[in-house]
Design brief:
Layout (H helix, E strand, L loop, with lengths): L11 E11 L3 E11 L3 E23 L3 E4 L5 E4 L5 E24 L4 E26 L2 E28 L6 E25 L3 E2 L3 E22 L3 E23 L6 E3 L5 E20 L2 E19 L13 E19 L2 E12 L17 E3 L8 E13 L3 E26 L5 E27 L2 E15 L1 E2 L2 E2 L2 E14 L1
Length: 498
């Protein structure tokens, strides 16, 4: 989405086909074609994909005796039914889909054009989550339960775009404007089957979940670029995005093992989420001899709104089910470059960023993949903010390019997943633990990376990179220290044959 695939300047009929194959299975094929004349350009891109995504998760919870005072002030100790609960989850995700994009670009003059395009995507898939729970006392398994969630998904999306470009001259002086409307629908149907497998086999009540999501988004953007002299350039613009998603969630619980299901009104709900962002930005760049700079500033206003409609919503503790938040912030950018030689330079950069919570981090109604370990969104989440610094070096030879940098990033009000007791228990007495994202911590990340691009021949391209960093988190929640430090590194390599 948000791309207009019409960048073909050759008159006549042109096209290409591309395919890809990955492990685990991730395959796709696409083709594009365009017909260009002196007055218009018609273009189309169509593709299909099929992928499988396996995954695993592991939970190990330990429970201890709890002592509290009764109504007479006497201490009472409650022993847990199980002192340890271990869950192993296996995920098997399968998805396939089709997409196509059709548009026409009309040349108003030699310097200006208007483009209209439409995009359509249709997808589906099936995800199977198998959750195996072992309940222990004194390191001895007393009960095993298997919970299988089979989820079928069907989604569609269509988008209409209008783009205007006016190149005032050949030196980069131009104005662009974009309008876009996006509409998406998604329906998920899940069946959760559960049985006890030890010490004896017992079929337990099943659950059915129907979740329908409707999403619409409007985008408007304008951008003006003005070169000043030979080495300077000024740019200013506006970008506004307005998004609304409505999630209709219905939970049906089986009566015993009769095959008859009734709706759970305390968890079934309709959650509406709005995210509106208005941003004005400007930047100025100039070059003096071997030194150049680019200074930018963006002022951005974010509105986050949420509303829950439900017949009988259960208590969610401190969570506000309905919220309306408004944030305005300044986001500067500074990039400095010094040319050591014609093919060698060093750079220094700084920028401030915003990380907004997505709707599944905000929806306050819990998942159902596990009875005892549930994930629940947090409507009280605020955006997180990060400041990033980067010092880089680049060197080009005839067939080889080297890039390397050291960097530092500091993020405040970062999202962190914490665990806490809900005060509720499952049907067999296990305390229900929920995982909740909160604005908990301050994160620091610092490290280095380097990359090599090698072109031994015109038809072969080799690209490799390596990244090493340390990550430090600081934060407390309900008296628990969630601070952590870790070291990570990863490498990538790719090759391209033309």
């Amino acid at each position: 989405r948000n791309e207009i695939l019409k960048k073909e300047k050759t008159l006549g009929l042109n096209g290409s086909i591309s395919t890809s194959l990955g492990v685990p299975l991730n395959s796709s094929a696409s083709g594009n074609i365009n017909l260009r004349t002196d007055k218009f350009n018609i273009f189309n891109t169509t593709g299909v994909y099929y992928r499988n995504g396996p995954g695993k998760a592991y939970f190990n919870n330990n429970y201890f005796p709890r002592t509290f005072l009764d109504e007479n002030g006497e201490p009472v100790t409650v022993e847990p039914q199980f002192d340890q609960v271990i869950e192993n989850r296996d995920y098997d995700r399968q998805g396939d889909g089709f997409n196509t994009n059709l548009g026409i670009e009309y040349f108003l003059t030699d310097k200006s054009s208007i483009t209209a395009s439409g995009f359509y995507r249709k997808g589906g898939g099936e995800d199977v989550t198998t959750n195996r729970t072992s309940n222990y006392n004194d390191n001895v398994v007393e009960e095993r339960i298997e919970r299988i969630e089979t989820e079928g998904e069907d989604d569609s999306n269509y988008q209409f775009s209008l783009n205007y470009v006016n190149n005032f001259n050949d030196n980069g002086h131009k104005f662009t404007a974009d309008l876009q409307y996006d509409r998406g629908k998604e329906e998920e149907n899940s069946l959760i089957a559960e049985q006890r497998t030890f010490p004896n086999t017992l079929i337990l009540s099943a659950e059915e979940i129907v979740q329908k999501q409707n999403q619409k988004e409007y985008l408007a953007q304008m951008d003006y670029v003005l070169p000043i002299g030979e080495n300077a350039q000024f740019e200013a613009g506006y970008r506004g995005s307005f998004e609304e998603s409505e999630t209709d969630y219905s939970l049906f619980e089986e009566i015993g093992t009769s095959g008859n299901f009734v709706r759970n009104d305390s968890l079934s709900n309709i959650f509406t989420y709005n995210e509106n962002v208005n941003a004005f930005y400007t930047q100025y760049g100039n070059k003096f001899g071997d030194f150049s700079f680019l200074l930018g500033l963006r002022v951005e206003n974010t509105q986050l709104k949420g509303k829950v409609d439900a017949e009988n919503v259960t208590d969610n503790g401190p969570l506000n089910l309905n919220f309306d938040k408004d944030y305005t912030g300044l986001f500067p950018t500074v990039n400095l470059t010094y040319e050591l030689k014609e093919n060698e330079n060093i750079t220094l950069g700084y920028n401030r960023r915003i990380n907004r919570p997505r709707h599944w981090f905000i929806n306050p109604f819990p998942s159902r993949s596990s009875e005892a370990n549930v994930f629940q969104g947090n409507p009280n989440l605020d955006p997180a903010y990060a400041s990033a610094f980067d010092l880089g070096y680049l060197k080009r030879w005839k067939k080889l390019t080297l890039t390397t940098s050291i960097y530092y990033q500091n993020e405040t009000d970062a999202f962190e997943r914490v665990q806490e007791e809900t005060g509720e228990v499952t049907s067999n007495g296990i305390p229900i633990i929920r995982t909740l994202p909160i604005n908990l911590s301050t994160n620091e990340r610092y490290g280095f990376e380097f990359g090599l691009l090698y072109n031994p021949t015109k038809w072969l391209n080799l690209n490799g990179s390596f990244n090493y960093f340390q990550f430090k988190t600081e934060g407390f929640y309900n008296g628990v220290d969630y601070g952590a430090e870790n070291t990570s590194y990863f490498g990538r390599f790719s090759s391209k044959v033309k």
